[in-house]
Amino acid sequence: xxxxxxxxxxxxxxxxxxxxxxxxxxxxxxxxxxxxxxxxxxxxxxxxxxxxxxxxxxxxxxxxxxxxxxxxxxxxxxxxxxxxxxxxxxxxxxxxxxxxxxxxxxxxxxxxxxxxxxxxxxxxxxxxxxxxxxxxxxxxxxxxxxxxxxxxxxxxxxxxxxxxxxxxxxxxxxxxxxxxxxxxxxxxxxxxxxxxxxxxxxxxxxxxxxxxxxxxxxxxxxxxxxxxxxxxxxxxxxxxxxxxxxxxxxxxxxxxxxxxxxxxxxxxxxxxxxxxxxxxxxxxxxxxxxxxxxxxxxxxxxxxxxxxxxxxxxxxxxxxxxxxxxxxxxxxxxxxxxxxxxxxxxxxxxxxxxxxxxxxxxxxxxxxxxxxxxxxxxxxxxxxxxxxxxxxxxxxxxx
Length: 399
Hints:
The protein is α/β, with parallel strands linked by helices. It contains 14 helices and 15 strands. The protein folds into two domains: 3-48, no CATH class; 58-391, Alpha-Beta Barrel (TIM Barrel), CATH 3.20.20. α4 packs parallel to α6 and α6 runs parallel beside α7. It is globular, with a radius of gyration of 25 Å.
């Protein structure tokens, strides 16, 4: 029995008790057989008067909403939990991430780690730890990210993972606050090639239908073409993909690791502005799921954390903010490494998983992360917001 029903039942019980007492203590000729509703005073805590309108987070055109209908603009960070042997369940990191004011964390997970199949119980604990720290958990699969096509040719393996009965039960348990990222950057192709666009859209429409058919209703996040870097594909195929979902609950995720030395000159220096203008009126929810100062592809033997790998992160964040598009910084750290081109500590927001190491850094190659997380006027700290539903511990519409 919920609290509202209990309150009403208790109120009627008390009224009945008073009437019964009157029967035993009053002259029966003076007893009224009619109860006047206007004289019945039942007090109900107003926080229970705003009912949950949904059972999951849901998209509404360009907006993401919580179960009470309040808009959420996702702002947070990524955390490679699956690759962190010291903090493999986010116990240390999530509490520290929450200190930035973030409202979400995108969690790198996998079907398996090496030869070891991932534990559903461990994932359950990871999701719970995120939720307990006031963070919306966005769980994605990273198994084939290093493939040339980002794992697009193995998309069905990702789909099969999410369709398992045990996983469906786990998702249902956490459905009030969970987002499922079907596969990290699991799409190759040329965004300007019509046949590649069709192949991408058809594959994800099929994936969405399969996952919905087993009863999963949480928002599904899908990454753009070109291993997540394409925004154009959403302008062309976003509505078509959304319409394939019978509950229309899709988040479109892109990772613009666009080399700054190109975006500064392409299309007269308006490349980034033009890309965002393409999706300005497209009625779908979009999030910039990874943003960093470094990481642009500069060649197979070139370190993406060299100057050749610079990204115009500041302009990308400004353009996202202008359209109320959420964004998540890559990555909390430590652990950003490449076996071919060398390590990339510049992408580690922290050196030891703590907020202090971020807030006090003076390393010139890591100051960008302190800027976007804490210092800048449009930082996570200064602009991320949590809804009353989130502030209540994801339980009710008022904190």
